[in-house]
Amino acid sequence: MTRVALYQAQTGIDPERNAAELVRAAEAARAGGAAMLFTPEMSGLLDRDRERSAGKVRAEADDSVLAAVREAAREQGIWVHLGSLALKGPDGRLVNRGLVIDDRGEVRARYDKIHLFDVDLATGESWRESAIYAPGERLVLVEGTPVGKLGLAICYDLRFPALFARLTEAGADTIAVPAAFTVPTGKAHWHVLLRARAIEAGLFVVAAAQAGRHEDGRETYGHSLVADPWGELVLEMDGEPGLAFAEVDLGMIAEVRSRVPALNHRRAMPEVERA
Which of 13, 65, 144, 208 is the most buried (most CB within 10 A)? Predict the structure, then answer.
């Protein structure tokens, strides 16, 4: 049994303040007995004002939030999945990058969000991530973590089951889905999508989320959760920021997959015949 911590953040427009909150979360997670801390998408900066935020975004090597979390991981002896940071990419655009940091403070893996959130909601909210972010081009599985082989996804990726299928076929035990879901999409789809991804793959899904009303005016759904391989919720938080703990029993994966061996029954799909 592995104890994990989920940090449900209300990330603001000041990276230094956000970094201090992440360090405190790492300290509290370790004090609570967690072997690994999971944080949300955009843990370092959440600001829809592009002019205001432009001067605060750095390349990975120069990012002060990442440096602070790496030092906290080393000092506390805890793994951290830093859900994502906005970082400068090589082509002038930004990347939405998740990072896995081990208990020595070393970056073990990087994943850039593949599916970008370009939507117009009925509430009037409009988002165009592709206007400033470059999509990722690699799927990533991290071996040797406290939660076994850890597959990486970010927020909107959740709606694309093929990504999860590929990670499952590669041997994932757990898939992390850090997020900053809007309230309308969260109320409608958050639970059902996360539970479905856990059920169809027979693995653990860990989803740390942003929550509440942020400094830039947006509101996010919260409800960070852990779903087990049967689709039951091991943990669900509410809509307020905070830290919570869950127990992950990796032995349950084989048990569930033997009970319903859907992965063994997967077949390559033939071409669609049009009639």
Answer: 208
